[in-house]
Structures are given as structure tokens and as C-alpha cells.
Amino acid sequence: MERFGPNDDTGNYFCYTSEYEGRKCSGVVLYDIDKETAYSIYDVVDLENDFISNCVLSEDSVIFDVENGKEKTRFRYDIEHQALEEVEDEEEVYDKYTYFGPPTFELDDGRKVGIDKESEDNELYFIDDSNRRSEISELSELNLKHAAVFANSFYLSDGRLYGITTSVKGDKYKKGHLVDLRNIENDDIQGEVLFSFNIETQDAEVLCNKKGGASRIIGYDEGEVYIFENNKVYKNELSTQKRSYSMSLRLLKKMI
Predict the structure, then answer these.
(1) Does some domain include residue 228?
(2) Would the CA dihedral through 191, 192, 195, 199 be positive or negative?
(3) Poorest-confidence range of 146-155, 177-186, 199-208?
(4) What is the pLDDT of residue 50?
(5) In this structure, is residue 51 part of a structural domain?
(6) How many of the other CB atoms lie within 10 Å of CB of 179?
(7) How many CB atoms within 10 Å of residue 193?
(8) What is the mean pLDDT of residues 132-159?
(9) Angstrom distance (rounded) from CA 117 to CA 103
(10) Residue 183 sits in which domain range?
(11) For the chain, how many structural domains are there in total?
């Protein structure tokens, strides 16, 4: 695996590009979270020249681009009908994964809150319903200088925000701009942090802190963190630190 989605954190799938015979970004894989099964949905025809340049899970489809240095072709894979088709180059497909402002969330009582981060600062900030910014001090000691916050990396549950921040190496970070994770490879990643934030008490807790890009945080559910490492998916129980094997991506099932 070389690159993740972006993915819809509320869905039952995530997608990523894969490596074959030493060629990076040579295939597209769809992972079914409920079935804990990965499916290969596309392999490039020309390993020497073709590569996957974008891969996005958008509602009920996987949309990706295949390039060869001269031209780009966009494909859409319909998950329900397991159908692959060539489509027009619609840039708006990626718009909802581009960060134009702090992620905001509406609480059950109608209040709107958010998370923000300034370019090249270590600090993350909580924005309350009065638009007041408060530093999340529990995260200030982490190396988040070259990290960005994206709305699709956070979700709200039972009064707590759960989020993942991904930090990249300095040469991949553009000053004053946020990092587009679609074009960041694992070797470019400094680390990822999964944390939770209590909106009422404004206390934060680091749930998982991974260094480098060899291990990727791909999910969290009721005290269990899902980690992708060495072409395998593991489940870590935070309370016991017990780690269990979920599946190997060598066991791909062909869908086309």
C-alpha cells in the first residue's frame, strides 16, 4: 500500500493504491470494513508507464485517475454493482476532500464547534459556539508543525470529537498551505496521532501515536484502533494493549 483515499470515515469501506512487482501505485484496492476483506478493483495495464495518481472513495463509488506521463484517464467503480467505467475528468469530485476552513460540527443542541490549526504551528485549537479559540494543551507537545486537519478525518460521537492528524516531512509541506494527502506517499509521512476531545470539559486524550509512515491508523471503534502495517491490518485494544491480526492483503479477491 502506498497511498490512502481520502476516505469517508462514516462508511463501510476505504480505498488505497497498491504496489505490484516493485511498481508503486499500480493498482486500486477496496477494503470492506464489515467483512474485513480487501478486493482488487483495478490493476494498470502497462506496469512500466501507467500509475494511479488519485484514488478517492466518494459515496457509493471509487474514483481514480490512471496516468502515463502524457495523458490521464478517470475511472469510476460502482461498489454496489461491481461495475467499472471510464468517466469525464470532473475535478469537483475531489472538492469535498479539500480543506478550505476549520472542520465544524453541529451538536445535538444546535451548537456549532470546530477544530483549527495554523500553518507551521504545533498547536491545535478548539473553536466553541461563540467562535472562541482555545489551545488543546494535551497535544501541544506533539510534533504537529507539518500536520493538517481535514474534516473527513474527524467524527463526533457522544459528546467527543475523534480525529487523526497526519504529519509529513518538511519538503512535502508548503508553507501557508495545507497538505493534500492524496499525493503523499507513506515514505513522506512523519507520523499520525489519533486523539479524542471532550467538548464539555475540553480535555483531550492521545489514543494512539505512530511514528513514520510504516504504520497507518485507519480506524477506531470503542477502544479499538485499527492499524495497517506490513500489508496487514491489526486491531489494538487500548485498555489491554492486546494486538490481534485481522487480515493479510495478500488474500485479495478479484472483483473484475
Answers:
(1) no
(2) positive
(3) 177-186
(4) 92
(5) yes
(6) 20
(7) 21
(8) 80
(9) 10
(10) 104-221
(11) 2
Average model confidence (pLDDT) for the chain?
77
For 131-149, give one letter per residue: b (16+ CB within 10 A) or e.
eeeeebeebeebebebbbb
Strands of the sheet containing 37-43, edge to edge, are: 3-4, 13-20, 23-32, 37-43, 253-254
Cα-flanking dihedrals φ and ψ of residue 29, to 5°?
Answer: -120, 135
Residue 186 one-letter amino acid: N
98-136 residue pLDDT tens: 444 567 888 989 999 988 877 667 788 899 999 898 988
Are 77 and 83 spatial neighbours (Cβ–Cβ below 8 Å)? yes
In the structure grid, which three cell numbers stand for residue 55, read together?
484514488
Kindly tell me if the per-residue pLDDT of 204 is higher than 90: yes
Q: Residue 177 gets which letter from DSSP?
A: S
My answer on whether 65 and 87 are in the same domain is: yes
Is the pTM above the cut of 0.70? no
